[in-house]
Design goal:
The chain is mostly beta strands and 297 residues long. It is built from one helix and 13 strands; from the N terminus they run αβββββββββββββ. It folds into two domains: 44 residues; 240 residues, OMPT-like (Lipocalin).
Length: 297
């Protein structure tokens, strides 16, 4: 009985003396490993969530493909002119484009943008053209110009705002400044100069309703898509617009990157009054741009 009691006490003493130090050693090793991992994480630069920067701006070239018809009435209904086929305008060119947004909160953004399209042409026309108060006869050499500026602003609300995906409803407003003109200069009657010139400038308000989606499969890569459209009547102006696009941004540093995308738009506007201006404008193309995103966390 005494031997059994002695053996039990000895075993208990060994457990008390050996097991706790061994457990303490294991716990110390785990704590040291955790501290080393924390130190490595603190030393490594933290990748920001670029889906939610405070400010974003992109600017670059838009390789644009056009399809444009135009009619300007005078006393009588004018000729519907295909700018590319009838007047020899380029069907494609590079133009400047910029856009961005300012974030007011995780779900709220104010958008802005600027887009310039400017073209000129020189062609001998093969059929008469009625443009405003002028009639340009067949075989007349004419010069023409067509310039459009878009100044845009809008608001979007992200009804889905997760870490890697954002889906937003968007309202966009734009002012479209258009100026166009056709001119012909000829020599008749032994040196007498005959000159014809007709031009028109107009400003159109354009509005869109739509949605946009942003997805970040990895921190440095952002995939963005958008789609929208609307038809409105304001005073003597009727306008309709459709627009969609897809783009990919890649960031080389915390704030700076580059992107590429495709955009398609169709715009129809008609302004009545003393002279009706009827314009159908289609353009699409590839965007190449630089991008800066500030305030991402």
């Amino acid at each position: 009985m005494r031997d059994r009691t002695f053996k039990t006490l000895l075993a208990g003493a060994l457990l008390v003396g050996v097991v706790p130090p061994a457990m303490a050693q294991d716990e110390g090793a785990e704590e040291a490993q955790e501290e080393a991992e924390e130190a490595r994480e603190e030393a490594a630069p933290e990748e920001p969530n670029r889906l939610y920067p405070r400010f974003r701006l992109s600017a670059g070239a838009f390789a644009t493909f056009f399809g444009t018809t135009l009619r300007l009435d005078g006393e009588n209904i004018g000729t519907e002119i295909d700018l590319e086929d009838d007047l020899g305008f380029d069907t494609k060119r590079f133009d400047f484009r910029t856009d961005g947004f300012l974030r007011l909160g995780r779900r709220h953004r104010i958008k802005f943008g600027y887009f310039l399209l400017s073209r000129k042409s020189l062609k001998v026309i093969d059929e008469p053209i009625k443009f405003g108060g002028e009639v340009f006869d067949i075989n007349t050499e004419i010069t023409a110009d067509f310039r459009t500026e878009f100044v845009t602003a809008g608001y979007s609300f992200s009804f889905l705002a997760r870490r890697k995906i954002q889906v937003a409803a968007a309202l966009g407003l734009a002012a479209m400044f258009t100026s166009t003109g056709i001119e012909a200069v000829g020599s008749i009657n032994e040196g007498d100069i005959d000159e014809q010139r007709e031009s028109k400038s107009a400003t159109f308000p354009v509005a869109t309703l739509g949605f946009d989606v942003s997805w970040a499969p990895i921190s440095r890569l952002i995939v963005r898509g958008k789609a929208g459209g609307l038809k409105v009547n304001i005073s003597d102006i009727e306008a309709s617009v459709g627009d969609w696009g897809l783009a990919v941004d890649y960031f080389f540093t915390r704030a700076f990157g580059a992107g590429a995308g495709f955009n398609w738009s169709k715009l129809g506007v008609e302004k009545t009054g003393d002279r009706t201006l009827d314009l159908t404008y289609r353009y699409s193309g590839l965007l190449l741009y630089g991008v800066v995103a500030l305030g991402a966390r």
